[in-house]
Amino acid sequence: MAFGKVGLDGAEQAASSAPPPLTVFNPDAPALGRRTKPNRELDGIGPKTAAIITEVATTGSTAYLDKLEQETALTVGNGNELVSQLKGDLHVHSLWSDGGAEIAVMARAARDLGHEYMALTDHSPRLTIANGLSRERLLQQLDIVAALNDDLAPFRILTGIEVDILEDGTLDQDDDILERLDVVVASVHSKLRMERREMTRRMITAIANPHTDVLGHCTGRYVVGRGRPQSEFEPEAVFHACEQFDTAVEINSRPERLDPPNDLLALAVETGCRFAINTDAHAPGQLEWQPYGADKAVETGVTIDKVVNSWSADELVEWTRR
Ligand SMILES: [Zn+2]
Ligand SMILES: [Zn+2]
Questions:
Q1: How far is the CA of 120 from the centre of ligand 2 (A)?
Q2: How confident is the model at residue 1 (pLDDT cuts 50, 70, 90)?
Q3: Ligand nearest to the CA of 121
């Protein structure tokens, strides 16, 4: 513990008459060893704090601070082991739709994070608010990605799309293009308040589409600010369809989404689904958000053998072409 170490160093250095180091609590504290007055008489230090300082200075710790540390400890980090086994990210945006950086910038950032690949999944045409890509623009993007891949090898940008699940469950891009892409993430972005039965039918239609590889942020919830409630659907039926049609359930790591919530994620685990732990990054720094999703995975019992982005690019593409 940092404070205990500072306290001990202070005592040692005072004894050897070296200049006292700073402490986190009070600049007077390093002088403990040189003053004859009891600690509690130091200016600005009450008897309780003085007792704690004395205890830490003599024993290196105190039950009071240990308890405080335990009570305030963050649980972040449960997923570290899992994160270290991920080889890529399957949900990344660029300037081509509503992202904030060029494809090359996102790709280099992903590579520098240690990823072997990232799927470039810009939005589909009907999401005009996010500058969704027309058929023509997406075809243009494929040429650019091919050229970039020559530069960046062995790192690989997988071609892809975050395609809108339309109200009838069909996907917002032509079949021949979806067929060509390495990774298709299908997400609901409109009519999130659809009636439960209809939403279930809509989602299952998309999940069963042979082009769909990953079901993106399935509840659509927002957990920060004013928030947004989850879409209503029959989770047993939806996750059963994911398992049946081998469509991975996305664990969306964005701090404002953290979707699906852990009770639904646990249900998906129980149902035997596969998962993709994605950042949905819209800027290079956001590629570092995978640990948030990995923490959720560990909390709900997701095992690495079920995580499709723990596979190599070749294994992954073999799966998406299934
Ligand atoms: Zn989305
Ligand atoms: Zn997205």
A1: 10
A2: very low
A3: 2
